[in-house]
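Support request from a user on the community tier.

User writes: "When I paste my C-alpha cells into the form, the page sometimes reloads and wipes my input. The last time it worked, I copied everything first. Here is what I submitted, just in case something in the input itself triggers the reload:"
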C-alpha cells in the first residue's frame, strides 16, 4: 500500500480508502448494502491489515447507522484511533424538520456533534460538505467549518460533488477572511466517466487539492460482470440501483478493451479499472466498498497491477472525452507555449 499527501497538508492517507456505504442498510440505503456488525468488523480488519489507514463514511449513510457501525468496528477490533484517518460528511437530511438538512450553521453545528457521538471519537480527521446548498450563503458555511476546526472537533475540511467555480469561490473567501480552506474534493471519477477532467482536474492540480474518488467502478458496471443487453448478476447493485448515470454504450466500448487486457494479466476487469485511476496524477485515494471479503480482496489487489504505457494509451484512446469549448481553444492557442516548453526541456 502506498500513501499520498492529502492536498496541501502534511497528512498521509492510503491510496485506497475503505468506503462504508454498505454498512447497515436502513431506509433508502438498503439498495446499497445491508451488512451487519460482524461482516463490517471483518472488512475493516482486512482493510487495516492491508495497510489502509483511511475510512470514509457520511451521516446520511443508513441514517447514521454506518457511522455507528464504523465506530463500533474500531472499538471491537481494538484499533489505534490515532493511526486512522476518519472522514465523514454533512449536507443531507437527517430528519423531517426544516432545519435538519443543508449547510447552515445550525445544521452543521448539530451534526458534527452527532457524528462524533456515532463514531465514538473525540475528533474527525476530515469533515466534508456532501454537496452544494443553494439555500445557505457559502460564507456562512465556510465560517462554521472554520469554527469547528478551531474548536478541535475537526482537523481538516473537504467538499464533495461541487463544481470548480463553487470550490474556488469558497477558497477565495477563506483566503480573504483567513479561514480554513478545503483540502480535498470527493468526486465521481471512472474510466467511463471522465467529466471532471474538463474543469475540476486543472483546478485541483493548480490549487493542490486532493482527490478522493467515489464509485470508481461506476456502481459496479466496470466489474466486468454486465452485458450490453443489460444482463447482470442477480441482486447486483446496478440491477437494483442504476446509479451513477453512465453512457452505457461508451462504457461497453471501454470494457471491450479492458476484458482482453484483464485476461492477458490473469486478473479481474475491476482491478484494471481501479489501477487506471491509481495511475492518474490527480488521484489521492480511491474509495472502495464491498459486501464480501472476497470482493474487498480483489479490490485491494489493484495496488499491485502494473499498466504499461501501451495499456494506458489504449485505455486513454477508447475513453477520452470529446473536446468541448473552451478546452479545444486552449489546446489550439497553447501550441506555441507547449513547443517552447519542449524545447526548454531538451536544452536542460
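"...and here is what came back when it finally went through:"
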Amino acid at each position: 500500500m502506498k500513501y499520498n499527501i492529502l492536498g496541501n497538508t502534511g497528512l498521509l492517507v492510503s491510496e485506497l480508502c475503505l468506503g462504508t456505504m454498505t454498512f447497515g442498510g436502513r431506509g433508502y440505503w438498503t439498495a446499497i448494502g445491508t451488512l451487519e456488525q460482524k461482516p463490517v468488523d471483518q472488512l475493516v480488519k482486512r482493510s487495516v491489515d492491508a495497510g489502509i489507514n483511511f475510512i470514509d463514511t457520511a451521516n446520511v449513510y443508513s441514517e447514521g447507522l454506518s457511522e455507528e457501525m464504523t465506530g463500533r468496528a474500531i472499538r471491537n477490533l481494538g484499533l489505534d484511533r490515532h493511526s486512522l484517518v476518519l472522514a465523514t460528511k454533512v449536507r443531507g437530511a437527517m430528519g423531517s424538520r426544516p432545519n435538519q438538512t443543508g449547510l447552515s450553521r445550525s445544521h452543521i453545528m448539530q451534526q458534527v456533534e452527532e457524528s462524533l457521538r456515532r463514531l465514538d471519537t473525540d475528533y474527525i480527521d476530515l469533515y466534508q460538505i456532501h454537496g452544494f446548498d443553494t439555500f445557505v450563503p457559502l460564507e456562512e458555511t465556510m465560517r462554521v467549518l472554520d469554527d469547528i476546526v478551531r474548536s478541535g472537533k475537526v482537523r481538516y475540511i473537504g467538499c464533495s460533488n461541487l463544481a470548480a467555480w463553487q470550490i474556488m469561490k469558497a477558497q477565495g473567501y477563506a483566503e480573504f477572511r483567513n479561514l480554513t480552506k478545503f483540502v480535498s474534493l470527493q468526486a465521481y471519477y471512472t474510466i467511463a466517466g471522465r467529466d471532471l477532467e474538463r474543469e475540476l482536474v486543472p483546478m485541483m492540480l493548480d490549487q493542490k487539492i486532493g482527490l478522493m474518488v467515489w464509485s470508481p467502478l461506476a456502481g459496479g458496471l466496470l466489474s466486468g460482470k454486465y452485458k450490453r443487453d443489460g444482463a447482470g448478476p442477480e441482486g447486483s447493485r446496478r440491477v437494483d440501483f442504476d446509479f451513477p448515470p453512465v453512457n452505457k454504450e461508451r462504457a461497453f466500448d471501454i470494457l471491450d478493451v479492458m476484458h482482453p487486457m484483464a485476461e492477458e494479466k490473469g486478473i479481474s476487469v475491476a482491478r484494471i479499472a481501479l489501477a487506471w485511476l491509481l495511475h492518474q496524477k490527480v488521484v489521492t485515494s480511491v474509495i472502495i466498498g464491498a459486501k464480501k471479503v472476497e470482493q474487498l480482496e480483489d479490490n485491494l489487489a489493484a495496488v499491485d497491477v502494473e499498466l504499461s504505457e501501451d495499456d494506458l494509451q489504449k485505455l486513454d484512446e477508447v475513453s477520452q472525452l470529446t473536446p468541448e469549448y473552451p478546452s479545444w481553444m486552449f489546446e489550439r492557442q497553447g501550441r506555441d507555449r507547449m513547443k517552447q516548453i519542449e524545447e526548454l526541456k531538451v536544452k536542460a
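Agent notes: The reload is a front-end session timeout and is unrelated to the input. The mean pLDDT is 95. The longest strand covers residues 154-160. Escalated to web team.
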